[in-house]
User: What shape does this take?
Amino acid sequence: MIPYGRQSVDESDIEAVVEVLRGDWLTTGPTVTAFEKALEDLSGATRCVSCTSGTAALHIGYAAAGVGAGDEVVTTPMTFVATATSAMALGAKVRFVDVEDDTLNIDPALVEDAITERTKVVAGVDYAGHPIEIDELRPITERTGTLLLEDAAHSIGSTYKGRPVGSLSDITTFSFFPTKNLTSAEGGAVATLDRELGQRAHEFHFIGLVRDPERMRHPDEGPWHQEVHEVGLNYRLPDVLCALGLSQLRRLTAFKTRRAEIFARYQEGLAGLEGVRLPTQREHVDPIWHLYPLRVLEGRRREVFDALRNDGVGVQVNYMPAHWHPVFEDLGYRRGQFPVAEKFYGEEISLPMFVGLRDSDIDHVIDAVHRAVRG
Assistant: This one.
C-alpha cells in the first residue's frame, strides 16, 4: 500500500537529535532558540514561538490576539476542525464563511459581511499549501479593526507575490506533524509581525510566566522570582524535537522541489481524464504542495476512493467541513449552509503526496486513478 503521507527522516536528522540527547538540555534550551531563529529567517516574521502542535499554535495565536468570551472569530469550514475549536476553547463564537471554488480558501468577498462589532480575528487557511488572498483580506481586517490569522499548517515555505508565508498576516500558525511539509515529530509554531503579539504568544505558551523585573509587581522578591499575570499553558516544544525541526528546515527547499515535481507529474498524468477535476494554482503564488486534492465528479467519490484503496493507493479525504461536526451542529449550524465547501468535500480525494514517493509509485497512482474513474 502506498501511504497517503509519510515523513522523510534521514541520517542528518537522526544525528541532530542524538547530539541533543547527549547534551545538557532536553527541554527549553539553546536548540529551541536556534529553531525559532531559523523559522524567523525563513518566514520573515518578527517573532516565532515554537510549540507542541499545530493545534497548540492556533490556541496560542488566538490567546495572543486577546480572544475571549463574547468575541467572535470568522473562519472557513474547509479545514481541520482545530482552526475553529481552538478559538471556542477561549470562549469565542465561530462564524463560518464559504470558500473560493478554485483554491478552497476563505472567500474574501464573503468575509466583510460576516464581521460584527464582536469580531476579534479573521482566520484563513492555506488549503493544500496555496496561500490565502492576503491583498484582498488585509484591507478588510484593517478597515474593521480585526486581526488576520493565517493557518499555515499546509504552507510553510510557500510564497505569495514573492513574500514568504509568515510575513503576510498579523499572526501565522504552522504545524510540524509527520505528514506536513517538515516535521519535529509533533510540533508547531506561531509567527507574528508584531513584537507585542509575539511576547503575548511566548508567555501564553510558557504557563504565563513573566520574568522581566520591569513588569513584575514584586521585583524585589529575589533572583529566583517569576510571576504569572495571565493564565497560560505549558505548550513548550523541547530541545530534542526542535533539533529534528531545525535539521528538517535545512531540507525544506529540497522538500518543496520534490513536492512540486510530484504535483506536476499528477497534473500531466491526469490531464484530460473525464470525470475528474484537477487542482489549480494562481499565478501569483508559489506553493509548497502539502496535498494533491483530486475532485471526482458525478457523485462517484466513494466508489473511486474504495477502488483506489483496493488497488494499493492509500488515499485520504481532507476535510469534512468543520460545521458538520456535532459540536457545531449542536450550536445550530446545518448542512447546506456553505455549498462551495460542501460540494468540494463530496468530491475530494487526496492522492499520496510526500517527498519519498518514487516516480514508479506516482505512475502506479496515476494508472490506478484512470482504472478507478473509468470503472
